[in-house]
Amino acid sequence: MKRRVIHWVNTPVLTEALVRYEKGQLPLSMKLWVEKLLEITPLGNCQSKPDSTIGSESANQ
To answer: Contact 34/18 with Cβ under 8 angstroms?
Structure first.
């Protein structure tokens, strides 16, 4: 099956999808589409490290 290539995206559709994406109200297929289209990191999969110095600073005072 030939893969489809997106040539343009309807701005109001994308805007509404982004609003719903941020609220977590998109079906999985639309969520994956938004993430792929905009090349963004999936919500809930952030690779940030917790700051381990926060708890130890107050103990050292």
So the answer is: yes
